[in-house]
Queue: 2 jobs
Job 1
Amino acid sequence: MTAVSFTHQAFNEVYSTPENVRGHYHVLMDQLSKLGVQEFERRAGLSDLSFRNQGITFTVYGDAQGTERTIPFDMLPRIILAQEWDTLERGLKQRVKAINMFLQDLYGPQKILKDRKIPYDLIHSSPNFRREMFGIQVPYGVYTHVVGSDLIRDEQGQYRVLEDNLRCPSGVSYVLANRTAMTRIFPRLFSQYRVRPVQHYTTALLELLRSLSLRHLEEPTIVVLSPGIYNSAYFEHAFLAQQMGVELVEGRDLFVSESKVFMRTTHGRKQVDVIYRRIDDDFLDPAAFRPDSALGVAGLMQAVRAGNVALANAPGAGIADDKAVYPYVPEMIRYYLSEEPILENVQTYSGAKNQDLVYMLEHAHELVFKPVGESGGYGMLIGPQSSKQEVQDYLQKVRANPRNFIAQPTISLSVHPSYYKDTGNFEPCHIDLRPFILVGQETTLIPGGLTRVALKRGSLVVNSSQGGGSKDTWVLEDDDVLYQQNLMETPVNLPEFEEHQPDLALEAIKMAQEAQQQ
Amino acid sequence: MLSRLAENLFWMGRYIERAENTARLLDVNYHSTLEAPKWFPVRWEPLLRITTSQEQYFEHFPEVTPYNVPVWLAIHPHNHSSIRGCITTARENARSLRDRLPSEMWETINREYFKLGFATQDLINEDGLHNYCITARDASHLFFGIAEATLPRDEGWLFLQAGRLLERADSVLRMLAEYYQDIPTSAQNQVEIQNHHWMAVLKSVSAYEAYRKQYQSRLEPARIAAFLLQSHTFPRSVIFNLQTLKTLLEELADITQHNSREISRKLGWLIAQLDYGVPLDGLMVGDTRALKDMANSLWKISDDMGRLYFMARYA
């Protein structure tokens, strides 16, 4: 195994020591080890084929024609205790509440800047700050309705927030697809745990979107706006639209007239009330943002401003998940809610701060560097895994534009066993967790979220575009391990069959022959 | 329904039907040339003309050979109407319809795409053409069968069917126009050649058995033409498809409240021509202009539909 040395300190989700399985994993590990390699692989094969045939894929950019791939599905589920989840849920709700208050403040009075809790320059130099949003009233004062925050567990097993995704977080479709796959492949195993359900996500999302409608109609027109089939998350867009029964549209299907948004249908035009947009701000409206965008709808922002259409998530929400703003989220919680953060951030150095920059340049080989404007694991430097030359080259970019980089200590993400076909063994892989939070009048979470796995041996990068996989995430309803019972062991008593069943056809022939002879 | 989706459904119907038709033509021709007498000229040009791809073909191949034409029609990456091309495009259309199509339909076309969309020349080198054609034909049957069983009978269904019916009528018209152009005449084994030729015609539209059931006689060119153009009971005859198409377009006009009287009128005229035998007059002496005109009118009808439903200008 080529894992770097610090992975030895990683928190192990399943084993408390190399010999001891944690209580809530007992039944799972026990039964999987009894299953045998052959049977395990047979089921893995079935699941692969099923994902492929259903077209549960993402598109890889950079390849000639946008190759579709399935995200490797790791069949070992991750199990989260009810009590742990409870803390996570409270922490995340607190966090998104503060973030939304921050956004409302920022596109309004900007008190937090005036009180010097966050540097003015940091906000105003960010491309994610959208001046176009000033003075726009959003329903319930909520800017980011669908949030997918990334959590990791550090060496002590403590959950920390690695980043918030407030614009178009992806992955929830895999949460649902993974669950479906798991219950099909291991129905009996699954039924032995009391796992909290996740399949109601799309219903909750639909309710949220309905509540944003500004026309107060019985049946508002809701659409999912996608960049189209070449987008890496297209499967998800289509899946969500289908599950909610709403129209999946592209920019070219919509147009703005009299500050209202319409879609082109075979019946003529139809007014749109709520848009769940899965297009980045930049491409949303060529009249307001990037003029060269062919994906968006010209005049959309004008319709938003006129209060004729609601967007989830609102443009400009991205300023709060700018990697340079992220270090200030705990401060926001204290400032707006007068509470201590329940979930901690990962310690973060920001190139925008002078003393941080000095530290970053001196300790580069211990740190993970990230450009603030990138996502999907692109453009990172992992100090301990890079050569001296790579580090030097990277630091040149940092010196040229320090504001554009942050650095974090190489926390060893927790590990969880995953199955490797080449060795026929379970090996520890780093994982993270992306829960999905829906924010409207109320805030709801589906239990669990997407557990992503760094399947490349020794890798810390869990992104699917970098070869990561995912696994089903089980949140237990009840931590009492006695409830998680080993039912597979229960012997079944079948009544014994009779030794020999007379063959009626043969009987008939025999009788006929006898009759003839007589 | 979104105009873009209506258009995608229409073309998905056309492409899957086209894959099926090309597969049938190819399979029948490939195997009938294998069985043909040695002195019988192997003919592949007609297939290029039926699929209206001869010009494009010659951009990629210098001459017509029994190897190149199957490659072109089955898998050539530059032929968008090849079986592989049609299935790929249809799957692309289906992908943009994923939120609307019943999952079973999507999964079928997706699965068949994995079987058909990546074939290479090995297909022909390893004698796999027949299997490939059968797979394409079955893919179409499976796809439309599932549509029949699961797709709500709304506009979407009507657009899908319209594409399919239009494509099928067009394909039969072009095939007949081609095969009646030079009816084999003088040769020693007249009957043998005639038989070979007409069996291929009938089998290319899966009509051989149906024809035999209706007429227990030898293969007569006039009867075959009448059967394939005018049969009111055979589901691949031109008139059958046009009449169904007409009813369906009228339903669409009702649902969408668009005025499509002009399209109905054009279709009605084609149906009348077929029903009263006009195109049969010249056909037996090799004059196929009437059929070609009809095929071209069908293309115009397809265009008209596009203007009416898919390219509506609102803003």
Job 2
Amino acid sequence: MTTTGYLIPGTPAPPSPGFADLPGLMALLTGDEKHTAAATSTLDVLWVLYDRVLNVTPETAEDPGRDRFLLSKGHGPMAYYAVLAAKGFLDPGELTGWTSARSRLGTHPDGTLVPGAEIGSGSLGHGLPLGVGTALGLRAQRLTTSRVVVLLGDAELDEGSNHEAIALAGRAALDRLTAVVIDNDSATHGWPGGIERRFAVEGWETRTVDGRDHEALYRAFTAPNTARPLAVVATVEPKG
Amino acid sequence: MQTMRETFLSTVGAELDADPRLAVVLADISAAQLEDAAVRHPDRVINVGIREQLLIGVTGGLALSGLRPVAHTFPSFLVERPYEQVKLDLTHQGVGAVLVSSGASYDMSTEGRTHQSPADVALLDTVPGWTVHVPGHPEEARRLLLDALPGNGTVYLRLSAAVNAEPHHGTGFQVIRRGGAGVVLAVGPMLDRVLAATAGLDVTVLYAATVRPFDAAGLRAAVGSGPADVVLVEPYLAGTSAHLVTEALSTTPHRLRSLGVRRDSEVRMYGEMSDHDRAHGLDEASLAASVRAFLP
């Protein structure tokens, strides 16, 4: 795709970037058009969320009633930055200088620096507790149309803080909270019986889908759920 | 007289009625005392159970959603156990909160090391931007809380069962007594015993209920042009504020003696708070001996 169209005033708006444009945007970060599965494990989920699910745009990024996306698995944020750029939160031109001293984009995102990022992350196990607090806060303010979606990795579930959050969210029936777990089979000791069970036993509604299947992801995120929080396990290729 | 903890709980319960932006987060500790408030405000009094990482994580999330959260438990479980959550879920996210601890360094004198937290203020010193209040009287605690609630900053309010007889309100370091042979800075509940220990000595006694930000100008004003002899008396780890005294007096010739909870060994004893005071050299007699030994 051509990215300079964003930078020239007065020119007609280019067509909105699509999923096929993401590799080009990621190449601005890495210089490599071919990415390993590990580097893109989150790409399809992020795209479906920002393209079709989340009610948030650059114009509404500060609205109290917006949907919130919290990237808890903060490492490997290239796909996240690419999607933010495709959706207009970030100028694609900013991607090229990432990780330099003058850039707002690091190898872990800083929520106070990255436009559109709700939180800073990198240390694992912080996003879901922050998401539970955000969902509780929105409920207390009667902002009940706002969704809170937290993205975690299956290895990140090792952190005990997640299990503190899973228990409370289930008991508090946080029906506007969604946890999406990217499962690339990278947890050292694994999750016998499946990741879903860790959520289901605490009262979450759970759905496991192919993490590369956009329609299946869309349905998992949008099919009506009962008055319970929703866990979507998005299975992708095992980490090499 | 109500204790600081009772004062906090009754005050924050009433403020929940007045301020729709306020939320209180608990980890079982004090949940029973706030049960009535929780019935009135079920969405804004949140007991997460015995989950202290989540206590601070939820507090950060509530702040991100636009509320003003107050998190409360014993200091060992509010600051020490979830230290990384304090660092990342509050300060790093750029959001504020009021953390209110009750228990101080050894209020729970029979409960052992697991319930003692002399390192809380030193730990918060490693994270930028925190205001730290160490009130010496329940009425001071009430006013400091009411000042903190409407703001947006990160505030730590350290409540203790140790108190002075009278409150001393005011901002910065307050001059309680003037003298010419040295300056003794007493923090929070240390004041009355410092006054008693230094009775008859020609020293200035300063009082601090707020230690962060550190009132460097107030200290310099009390010290004058020097050379100066300064004694720091803090109810948590000895020398916690020593670096700030040194910085404040960087161009003033001075000597400094830092008194507080000992760092050299873990005091494995039970007994009363007064027994722990003696073990740490923070009782009146020990303080008097330390100050007299230090002054020229």
